[in-house]
Amino acid sequence: MNTVLSRANSLFAFSLSVMAALTFGCFITTAFKERSVPVRIAVSRVTLKNVEDFTGPRERSDLGFVTFDITADLQSIFDWNVKQLFLYLSAEYSTKNNALNQVVLWDKIMLRGDNPRLSLKDMKSKYFFFDDGNGLKGNRNITLTLSWNVVPNAGILPLVTGSGHVSVPFPDNYETTKSY
Amino acid sequence: MGVLFGVECWLDGCCVGCRCWVFCWERVFDGWMFCWVQVLGVLLGAGVGWMGVLLGAGVGWMGVLLGAGVGWMGVLLGAGVGWMGVLLGAGVGCFVGSGVLSRVRCRALSRERPRRGPAPAPLPPSRCLSGPAPRPGVQPRSPVPVSSPAPRPGVCPAPLPVPVSGPAPPSRCPSLPAEAAVTRRKRKRERERERGRAGAAVVAAVAAMLSLDFLDDVRRMNKRQLYYQVLNFGMIVSSALMIWKGLMVVTGSESPIVVVLSGSMEPAFHRGDLLFLTNRIEDPIRVGEIVVFRIEGREIPIVHRVLKIHEKKGSGGLSTAQSIPDVGTLQNGDIKFLTKGDNNAVDDRGLYKQGQHWLEKKDVVGRARGFVPYIGIVTILMNDYPKFKYAVLFLLGLFVLVHRE
């Protein structure tokens, strides 16, 4: 320890190891935490159209419009190792051609410090709900769930689904409104 | 239970595909990246194994046999298990062949050494002319047998080889006979200290810098120590490679750790963050996951989030996340998906190839499962400023050279 260089070297090495230990500590203390909370989703309107898919392959596909409400309290998920929550509302259903379809209708980034209580009414979907084909018409069972991706300061990136989902049937005809 | 452990390889053009299973865990490896990795692994393993042999040869026959045997066992075993085994076996072989066996040889030699009295003082050349004549019958006590007769006064005998009684030169093992227990312990400590050195670029830089003053200890190293340093370096390189390839195997992804290069996923990931990826076949791609994918024709992978998936009804397809995949058929049914960066306003169809609307499993490098912030900045700096990379390596080598610890 008799030169500036060796002192700087040990200081640097020590601080690196301390930071590494801290990061690992952050990770290990929150790795096995339960991050699911109850969620309430309600659907007020479902409309169905059949148009050419302008967002992708130019085929006539079913286009759905869903108006929904979400209520959730995500306060308990935020802790010292959560940087943000990426919330997304996804619709899951199966059709004649496809065994499984999942489409994200709406998403939101909730940073630490933002209001964790979600209380949204009459939200319109952010993204176009196009099906790969014409499978939405007359589909009895389309399940909407709210999930979130927990982005930590350091550690695992889990995908958690909120407990509470809603299933809606789609109308049998196009351009029809179904009110609930 | 069927076969507990097995490997089955096939040749596909110039590439080798392998399928190996241990108990219930099965994985199929194929593709061009495993061709050159296997070749490289065998060469590296064989090379490191032979380095052990050579070093063992310096230590003695036992060293040669054991080093060669273990080294080659490693190569053969490795060829059956894969490159990982090659490196592990050869690395273990060369460690055994050099480090441990040199100690065995040391101990063996010191036990063989015959009892010898204190070495006689060196005869000054003037004594035979002016000094008293040695009595006939008395042989000078020296380890070398004297073939010439007793010297007559006035005539200088043939010069006897003078036994060295000064301090023993700093060599590793007693190839020289005169060695006390004290020096042995000192040398053991020295050896331990040297092993703690980070080897690496030292040897390469040595040749260029031998003229400098502060490299006295490097100049004092003899050939065996140099071999040992090179071997150490070889082991470090091979263990680093092993760890990386082992991670590749465990995660199933060809690049298990990636650095985020762009800001399209802010505020979740910033430039310079590290992501840990997995690409297991049993986990199908679902909406909301962060995937790292590569577009055909572009080499830089992109980190974005899945927006939409459509999974076809396949023969081995999954209709729900709980069904057990059929091994051997397409694990994911036939999933096509669309991605979008969190910080982008539109989805990625503008980024895909002309006419491509969906991504498939084959484009995926991996799914992001873990995240560490800021660490990747070093990689970005080294990529953007290659001079910085060389400067860091040079300074590292210089630092290791100057300080023994």
UniProtKB/TrEMBL annotation, chain A:
Matches recorded under Pfam families: SPC22 (PF04573)
Superkingdom of origin: Eukaryota
Protein's cellular compartments: Endoplasmic reticulum membrane
GO terms under cellular component: signal peptidase complex
Principal localisation: endoplasmic reticulum
Transmembrane segments: 12-32
Keyword annotations from UniProtKB, A to Z: Endoplasmic reticulum, Membrane, Signal-anchor, Transmembrane, Transmembrane helix
Membrane topology: Single-pass type II membrane protein
GO BP terms, alphabetized: protein targeting to ER; signal peptide processing; viral protein processing
Similarity-based family: Belongs to the SPCS3 family.
Role of this protein: Essential component of the signal peptidase complex (SPC) which catalyzes the cleavage of N-terminal signal sequences from nascent proteins as they are translocated into the lumen of the endoplasmic reticulum. Essential for the SPC catalytic activity, possibly by stabilizing and positioning the active center of the complex close to the lumenal surface.
Name recorded for this polypeptide: Signal peptidase complex subunit 3
Phylogenetic classification of the source organism: Eukaryota, Metazoa, Chordata, Craniata, Vertebrata
UniProtKB/TrEMBL annotation, chain B:
Main location: endoplasmic reticulum
Bias (Pro residues): 133-152
Keyword Ribosomal protein assigned: no
EC number per UniProt: 3.4.21.89
Membrane topology qualifier: Single-pass type II membrane protein
Superkingdom classification of source: Eukaryota
Region called Disordered, residue ranges: 113-152, 166-196
Catalytic reaction(s) noted: Cleavage of hydrophobic, N-terminal signal or leader sequences from secreted and periplasmic proteins
GO cellular component annotations of the record: signal peptidase complex
Residue ranges of the TM segments: 83-106, 226-244
GO BP of this protein: signal peptide processing
Domain Peptidase S24/S26A/S26B/S26C: 244-308
Subcellular compartments: Endoplasmic reticulum membrane
One GO MF term: serine-type endopeptidase activity
Record's keyword terms, sorted: Endoplasmic reticulum, Hydrolase, Membrane, Protease, Signal-anchor, Transmembrane, Transmembrane helix
The family this protein is said to belong to: Belongs to the peptidase S26B family.
Chain's role: Catalytic component of the signal peptidase complex (SPC) which catalyzes the cleavage of N-terminal signal sequences from nascent proteins as they are translocated into the lumen of the endoplasmic reticulum. Specifically cleaves N-terminal signal peptides that contain a hydrophobic alpha-helix (h-region) shorter than 18-20 amino acids.
Quaternary structure, from the entry: Component of the signal peptidase complex paralog A (SPC-A) composed of a catalytic subunit SEC11A and three accessory subunits SPCS1, SPCS2 and SPCS3. Within the complex, interacts with SPCS2 and SPCS3. The complex induces a local thinning of the ER membrane which is used to measure the length of the signal peptide (SP) h-region of protein substrates. This ensures the selectivity of the complex towards h-regions shorter than 18-20 amino acids.
Protein name: Signal peptidase complex catalytic subunit SEC11
Source organism of this protein record: Taeniopygia guttata
